[in-house]
Design goal:
The complex is a heterodimer of chains A (425) and B (318). By secondary structure, chain A is mainly alpha-helical. Chain A has helices at residues 3-6, 10-48, 65-68, 76-81, 85-95, 102-109, 116-126, 143-149, 166-177, 188-191, 204-235, 240-252, 257-271, 279-304, 307-315, 320-348, 352-356, 377-386, 391-421, and strands spanning 53-62, 134-140, 181-185. The mean pLDDT of chain A is 89. In chain A, helix 11 (204-235) runs parallel beside helix 14, helix 13 crosses helix 14 (279-304) and helix 18 runs antiparallel to helix 19. Chain B is an all-alpha fold and 318 residues long. In chain B, 75% of the residues lie in helices and 1% in strands. The mean pLDDT of chain B is 86. Chain B contains eleven helices and two strands, in the order ααββααααααααα. Chain B is flat, with a radius of gyration of 26 Å. The chains are: A mainly alpha (425), B mainly alpha (318). At the A-B interface, helix 2, helix 11, helix 12, helix 13 and helix 14 of A face helix 1, helix 3, helix 4, helix 5 and helix 6 of B.
């Protein structure tokens, strides 16, 4: 063999080097995107995990008859609304006896959550036999104390810019030394609505708002979407009208989501006077938004069904409608459902259009239907992200984790449906 | 169906015929929803924008250099009429989109090239879903991350280098938006690259070109129109993106090209004008619809051009 075939020329080596460099560019590009994603998830998870636990303070409360129910009537409402503040304060002062002045007492009381009195009221109303006894009850700590216990407050910071002062920290440590501070699962986060106080805020009302919106969205978008797809694929002749519809659908898929919100505001709210801030309108807007996605996905599924299926049905005397609805649609259904679920997953994460129709509100109550005022999970995330209190950072991250979990579940369900039911032709 | 058994064919035929037509009518009605939606969008935006332009002349809106939509409570107040020039908003939108595209274009195209040309099927099957995951993350999450993590990092890096960077810089929003756009560009470009006929590659290899030479000198030039189409689609997304800029970019309408300053965008202004209390006849509220109309024209225009390019390209190699 001649020599020049066995040795690589410098020219060739250079070209090969360029080749491997170019491959590395691609790898680096992918690595950047994916490491960004990993960084984002770790940053959010690291902040959010803490929110699933909350700090409780153990207080020996003397449920004095004279304070709670002086008349001894045991009326539920009175028990709930009795003045529990002095009882909690006395309990705290047993541990921290040096807080006697009014100012110091007020600061001491601020260590526990503002919702603690309602919590005690509920407990006593549920079990009136507690009255007259002294019991150690675990009540929620305030958000600042919670953050301190979780190590999220920098003690070395200048006292003037800290909300938790040195004195407060000393008290908390005193309580901690007596074993009166513990962390427990944050049930409130899953069972209550929004609140101004981070330790009492939860995602239930937002999650239900999202659920009702998606329900409305599904009920509108799914039938409309698949019927449109069926019409365009199975019935429509190629003419100007069909073309117009197709162009419309493709363009709608590219319209920025916020514009759909403006449509909802101008048409649904101002023209049809539908109730503002409700999942009904939210779902309608989301339905219009997901419609193009569903139509496009369903059409490609219908297209993949072989012509022989139609021919066979027609050959046996079935009409066009019978062929379509007895044979083609059932065969395409799993695929169309998959496309719909993926579209709904997108809708679940959508925020901007809901801001436009007023689903951006401080919602404490849990919505019971589609016409109750509500907000949605992503909007709740947006609202909390905007709140100045430090405790909400944790909640925002935790709410994002919940949202991502729902998204992953929906996607997994779609994948499962596809694997399980979809046929390959 | 049931009628056909007793051989009264004619009557059941007519009934079936009616049923067929009825069902077809329902189907047509359903597909008209898409048309009605478009009409609804255009009409509602145009209608409100028309009212807006009765108060503020169109030329002032398009050529005005100042944006401060505060309308006065009393007519004799100082600075009674707000300034409604859309240019600062447009410049802010374009600045952020430009930064985003500077990030997304190289990352997206290089990822697509790697996935389409170099990666083994196994790697491809692993990485493609991961990139798609990036596209599935709600934008509110990106916005939160941009405001909470990226913006402070950029600010501290800037002050380390002696720069004065605003905490709501265009850079933070743009960078994060760029990452968000990577999967759009990469998956579209991936399709485009896969559509380039193998014969072109084979011919290039036959001439002795290396794989990289084939890609840079043959495949990419052949795929350029399609890739440009995908970039245009990404730009249109960037312009219409709302949550990232609402959370990470500012409200100050600066007419600037400095990425370290706070800028505002059209979508941010729509959100600020329309959340909270609103009366429907004030120029302030109506301005949001005018901006939205502008936004719609911009994104749809980009989209139509992009789709045309992509379709033309597809036909070329079909």
């Amino acid at each position: 063999m001649p020599d020049y075939l066995l040795t690589t020329s410098p020219q060739m080596a250079k070209r090969h080097k360029r080749h491997s460099r170019f491959q590395w560019y691609g790898r680096v590009a992918i690595a950047i995107s994916i490491s960004f994603m990993v960084l984002m998830f770790t940053a959010i998870f690291a902040r959010g995990l803490g929110a699933f636990q909350k700090t409780m303070i153990g207080v020996d409360v003397e449920f004095a008859q004279s304070v709670i129910d002086p008349q001894g009537t045991r009326v539920q409402v009175d028990l709930k609304q009795a003045n529990y503040k002095p009882l909690i304060l006395t309990g705290l002062q047993e541990v921290v006896p040096d807080a006697t002045e009014r100012k110091a007492r007020n600061r001491l009381y601020k260590l526990v959550s503002g919702g603690a009195v309602f919590d005690l009221g509920e407990r006593v109303a549920a079990n009136p036999n507690m009255i007259g006894t002294t019991k150690r009850v675990w009540i929620a700590a305030s958000s600042e104390v919670d953050l301190y216990i979780k190590g999220k407050i920098d003690e070395n910071l200048d006292e003037a810019v800290r909300r938790l002062k040195d004195q407060d920290i000393a008290w908390v440590n005193q309580l901690k030394a007596e074993g009166r501070v513990k962390k427990k699962f944050n049930r409130v986060f899953f069972t209550s609505g929004d609140s101004r106080a981070p330790e009492m805020a939860g995602i239930l009302s937002a999650a239900l708002g999202s659920f009702f919106s998606l329900l409305v969205c599904f009920l509108i978008a799914f039938p409309l979407g698949i019927l449109t797809a069926v019409y365009l694929e199975e019935y429509a002749k190629k003419n100007r009208l069909t073309n117009l519809i197709e162009v419309n659908i493709n363009n709608l898929a590219a319209v920025p989501s916020i514009v759909f919100g403006l449509l909802g505001l101008a048409v649904f709210l101002n023209f049809f006077n539908l109730p503002r801030s409700t999942p009904l309108v939210g779902g309608m807007v989301l339905a219009l938004m997901t419609l193009p996605t569903i139509i496009i996905a369903s059409r490609s599924i219908l297209r993949s069904i072989p012509q022989s299926t139609r021919d066979a049905a027609m050959g046996l005397g079935a009409s066009k409608t019978q062929t379509t609805f007895h044979h083609i649609v059932p065969l395409a259904m799993p695929g169309m459902l998959t496309g719909t679920i993926l579209g709904m997953a997108r809708a679940l994460g959508e925020t901007a259009p809901l801001l436009m129709i007023g689903m951006v509100a401080f919602i404490v109550d849990v919505p019971k239907g589609v016409t109750d005022v509500a907000t949605s999970l992503p909007v709740q995330i947006f609202l909390w992200a905007d709140s100045p209190e430090k405790g909400f950072v944790e909640l925002t991250s935790a709410a994002i984790m919940v949202l991502l979990m729902f998204l992953i579940l929906m996607n997994l369900f779609a994948v499962y449906l596809r694997r399980r039911l979809e046929r390959r032709w | 169906m049931s009628g056909s058994r007793d051989f009264t064919l004619r009557r059941s035929n007519r009934r079936n015929q009616i049923k067929e037509y009825g069902i077809q009518a329902v189907l047509i009605a359903c597909s008209f929803v898409a048309i009605f939606t478009t009409i609804g969008i255009v009409a509602s935006l145009a209608f409100e924008a028309f009212h807006f332009f009765k108060k503020i002349p169109l030329t002032e809106f398009i050529f005005g250099l100042e944006w401060s939509p505060q309308t006065a409570l009393r007519s004799d107040q100082v600075g009674a009429s707000g300034k409604f020039g859309v240019l600062p908003l447009l410049s802010g939108t374009l600045l952020i989109s430009f930064i985003a595209m500077c990030v997304a274009t190289p990352l997206g195209i290089l990822s697509a090239v790697y996935l389409a040309e170099f990666a083994k099927p196994k790697t491809r099957n692993l990485i493609k879903p991961m990139l798609e995951l990036l596209a599935g993350i709600p934008t509110v999450v990106y916005g939160f991350f941009a405001a909470l993590v990226v913006a402070p990092i950029i600010r501290s890096m800037g002050s380390g280098a002696g720069f004065q960077i605003s905490s709501e810089s265009a850079l933070a929003a743009g960078l994060v938006m760029g990452i968000m756009l990577v999967p759009f560009i990469s998956s579209l470009s991936d399709d485009v690259l896969n559509a380039v006929p193998q014969a072109l590659r084979d011919a290039s290899y036959g001439m002795g070109a290396t794989e990289t030479e084939t890609i840079t000198k043959v495949v990419l030039p052949a795929a350029t129109p399609g890739i440009i189409g995908s970039l245009l689609l990404a730009i249109s997304r960037a312009i219409g993106e709302t949550m990232i800029v609402v959370m990470a970019a500012g409200l100050a309408a600066n007419l600037t090209a400095n990425p370290f300053e706070a800028v505002t965008t059209m979508t941010v202004q729509i959100v600020t004008l329309l959340t909270g209390d609103q009366e429907f006849d004030s120029a302030k509220t109506l301005a949001a619809f005018a901006i939205a109309l502008f936004l719609l024209v911009l994104t749809l225009g980009l989209n139509i051009v992009a789709l045309r390019i992509v379709n033309k390209y597809k036909k070329k190699y079909a």
